[in-house]
Amino acid sequence: MIKRILILMVALQFVGCAELQKVANQITQTTGLSEEQIGNGLREALDNGIKNQVSKLTATDGFYKNDLVKIMLPAELQAVDNGLRKIGLGNLADEGIKALNRAAEDAVKTATPIFVDAVKEMTFADAKNILLGDQNAATSYLQGKTTDNLTASFSPVIENSFSKVGADKVWSNLINKYNSIPFVNKVDPDLTQYVTNEALKGVFTMIEVEEKGIREKAGLRTSALLKQVFALQD
To answer: Helix (H, G, I), strand (E, B), or coil: what is residue 176?
Structure first.
C-alpha cells in the first residue's frame, strides 16, 4: 500500500512480526503525524467513499447504468431471459433486470448509518493495519465490520423494495409469461437473497473505487489531512 513502508515490510518479512510491529509503532515518530491524525485521515477516506460513491448507488440508475455493479440475472434464470427474447419479449426481460437494480438502489439507502458507525469505531490499531495493508485495506476493514449487519438489514429491505419499486409485479408478470411458453421447465425464483448479495458487492466495489482513487491520485485528496496521510505513499 504505502510505498515507503512496503519497502520496509519487504526488507523485514523474514525478521518477524515483532520487528514489523516496531516499524508500525515508529510511523508517528518518522512522519510527524499523530495517531489521531492518521486515524482521522483514514476515517475521512472511508467517509469520502461512502459520501462520494455509495450515495451514487442510491440514485435512479445508480446500479442499472453502472457497469461495475449492474445486477444481471443469476445463472439459473438465464433460460428465462433467453426464452423471453426468443418469443419477442426482450423488452419484458430488460424490465425484469431493471427492476432488480431498482430494488438494490432503494435498499442501499439504509446502508449509510451502518457504515458511519463502523467508521466511528475505527481504532488506531485498525488504522495501522490499514496503513500497512493492501491497496484496498480500508475497504476490507469496512467490509469486515459491516457485512453481517448489512446482510441482516438488506434482506428485509430488499424484499420491501421489490414491492416499493414494483419489482414484484414485474417479475410476477415475467415469470408467468415464461412459464406459459410450451415445454419449458417452470420456475418460481426467490430473488431476495440474490439481490441482497449483489447489492453488497456493489457497495464495496464503489468504496474500493474511491479508496484506490485517493491512493493513486493526489487531486482526489480533498483536505489537508488526506494530503498529509496519503502523501506517505508518494
So the answer is: helix
Q: How far is CA 45 from the centre of its chain?
A: 14
DSSP state string for 31-68: HS--HHHHHHHHHHHHHHHIIIIIHHHTSTTTTTT-TT
DSSP 76-140: GGHHHHHHHHHTT-HHHHHHHHHHHHHHHHHHGGGTHHHHHHHHHT--HHHHHHHHTS-TTHHHH
For residues 102 and 161, what is the distance between their CA atoms, to the nearest angstrom? 8
Element (H, E) at 137: helix 137-164
The type of residue at 45 is: A
CB 215 within 8 A of CB 233: yes
Which SS3 state, helix, strand or coil, does residue 70 take?
coil
CB-based contacts of 8, cutoff 8 Å, min separation 6: 23
For residue range 143-202, list pLDDT tens digits in order: 998 888 888 888 888 888 888 877 777 777 777 777 777 766 776 666 788 888 899 999
pTM for this entry: 0.74
What is the phi-psi region of residue 15: left when phi exceeds 0, alpha when psi lies from -120 to 50, beta otherwise? alpha
Number of neighbouring beta carbons within 10 Å of residue 95: 17
Query: Within a 10 A sphere around the Cβ of 106, how many other Cβ atoms?
Result: 22
**Residue 31: band (very low, low, confident or very high) from pLDDT cuts 50, 70, 90:** low
Q: What is the pLDDT of residue 10?
A: 34
Mean pLDDT of the chain: 77
